[in-house]
Design brief:
21% helix, 2 helices, elongated, alpha+beta
């Protein structure tokens, strides 16, 4: 399972059980941002590493989590702490973070965070 799918299916629902979580795109009926929080997960890049005997031994991934949050109902700093610590416990490290108001919805804050993770591959 890729890290983006693992985040969507396993990790993020445990951290944010009330959130609507989507992989790669937000369906059109949720794009009005009427039911928050909404999280979108996607892979940014991946590469093979740790070569030996002409085979890679690990793959590194960068994944992105975008969160659309109601600033009147969500403590942004607490949200970031839960997200960062929860992903850290699963082997992810924060690589990039951005926090800005949504350009169309006044009370919506958009949090963008990217994480790196390395998965060891079994020799086969």
């Amino acid at each position: 399972m890729t890290p983006a799918v693992d985040l969507k299916v396993t990790i993020l629902p445990e951290l944010f059980p009330d959130a609507q979580i989507f992989a790669y795109r937000i369906p059109e009926n949720y794009q009005k941002l009427e039911t928050l929080p909404i999280l979108k997960v996607e892979g940014v890049n991946e590469m093979n590493e740790s070569y030996g005997s002409d085979q890679y031994g690990a793959r590194s991934y960068r994944v992105q989590v975008m969160a659309f949050l109601d600033i009147e109902e969500t403590d942004i700093e607490e949200f970031n702490d839960v997200l960062d610590r929860g992903l850290e416990a699963e082997g992810y490290t924060l690589a990039y973070a951005d926090d800005r108001p949504h350009d169309q919805y006044e009370n919506v804050q958009v949090i963008t965070r990217q994480y790196n993770v390395v998965k060891i591959k079994e020799r086969g």
